User: Fold this.
Amino acid sequence: MNNQLLLFFLMFILTGCVSNEKISHVENDIHLINIKVDQLQQDINALRQEIQVAKEAAEKVNTRLDDAGRWPDGIWAHPPRW
Assistant:
Protein backbone atom coordinates (compact mmCIF):
# COMPACT_ATOMS: atom_id res chain seq x y z
CA MET A 1 0.00 0.00 0.00
CA ASN A 2 2.80 2.43 0.92
CA ASN A 3 4.66 1.60 -2.30
CA GLN A 4 1.53 2.29 -4.34
CA LEU A 5 1.02 5.58 -2.53
CA LEU A 6 4.67 6.51 -3.04
CA LEU A 7 4.46 5.54 -6.72
CA PHE A 8 1.27 7.58 -7.12
CA PHE A 9 2.91 10.58 -5.43
CA LEU A 10 6.03 10.23 -7.59
CA MET A 11 3.91 10.00 -10.77
CA PHE A 12 1.94 13.06 -9.66
CA ILE A 13 5.15 15.07 -9.15
CA LEU A 14 6.63 13.96 -12.48
CA THR A 15 3.40 14.78 -14.27
CA GLY A 16 3.42 18.20 -12.65
CA CYS A 17 7.00 18.86 -13.77
CA VAL A 18 6.27 17.93 -17.35
CA SER A 19 3.18 20.10 -17.30
CA ASN A 20 5.14 23.02 -15.87
CA GLU A 21 7.70 22.69 -18.66
CA LYS A 22 4.97 22.60 -21.25
CA ILE A 23 3.24 25.58 -19.64
CA SER A 24 6.52 27.48 -19.58
CA HIS A 25 7.08 26.67 -23.26
CA VAL A 26 3.57 27.80 -24.17
CA GLU A 27 3.98 31.01 -22.15
CA ASN A 28 7.22 31.71 -24.01
CA ASP A 29 5.50 31.10 -27.36
CA ILE A 30 2.65 33.43 -26.38
CA HIS A 31 5.15 36.11 -25.35
CA LEU A 32 6.92 35.85 -28.73
CA ILE A 33 3.59 36.01 -30.58
CA ASN A 34 2.62 39.13 -28.60
CA ILE A 35 5.90 40.78 -29.59
CA LYS A 36 5.24 39.98 -33.25
CA VAL A 37 1.65 41.26 -33.01
CA ASP A 38 2.88 44.53 -31.47
CA GLN A 39 5.40 44.93 -34.31
CA LEU A 40 2.69 44.27 -36.90
CA GLN A 41 0.43 46.85 -35.26
CA GLN A 42 3.23 49.42 -35.41
CA ASP A 43 3.82 48.61 -39.08
CA ILE A 44 0.10 48.92 -39.84
CA ASN A 45 -0.09 52.28 -38.07
CA ALA A 46 2.90 53.54 -40.06
CA LEU A 47 1.27 52.40 -43.31
CA ARG A 48 -1.99 54.10 -42.36
CA GLN A 49 -0.13 57.38 -41.91
CA GLU A 50 1.59 56.98 -45.28
CA ILE A 51 -1.74 56.17 -46.95
CA GLN A 52 -3.32 59.26 -45.41
CA VAL A 53 -0.48 61.46 -46.69
CA ALA A 54 -0.85 59.95 -50.19
CA LYS A 55 -4.64 60.52 -50.15
CA GLU A 56 -4.17 64.15 -49.14
CA ALA A 57 -1.61 64.66 -51.90
CA ALA A 58 -3.95 63.07 -54.46
CA GLU A 59 -6.79 65.33 -53.33
CA LYS A 60 -4.58 68.40 -53.77
CA VAL A 61 -3.59 67.31 -57.27
CA ASN A 62 -7.22 66.60 -58.20
CA THR A 63 -8.25 70.02 -56.92
CA ARG A 64 -5.49 71.78 -58.87
CA LEU A 65 -6.43 69.93 -62.05
CA ASP A 66 -10.12 70.67 -61.53
CA ASP A 67 -9.30 74.35 -60.96
CA ALA A 68 -7.20 74.38 -64.14
CA GLY A 69 -10.33 73.38 -66.05
CA ARG A 70 -9.08 70.29 -67.75
CA TRP A 71 -7.20 67.08 -67.30
CA PRO A 72 -4.24 66.29 -69.53
CA ASP A 73 -4.88 64.17 -72.60
CA GLY A 74 -3.96 60.51 -72.63
CA ILE A 75 -4.90 57.64 -70.41
CA TRP A 76 -6.02 60.02 -67.68
CA ALA A 77 -8.42 61.93 -69.93
CA HIS A 78 -11.24 60.61 -67.75
CA PRO A 79 -9.59 60.27 -64.34
CA PRO A 80 -10.87 58.10 -61.55
CA ARG A 81 -11.95 59.84 -58.37
CA TRP A 82 -10.07 58.40 -55.41
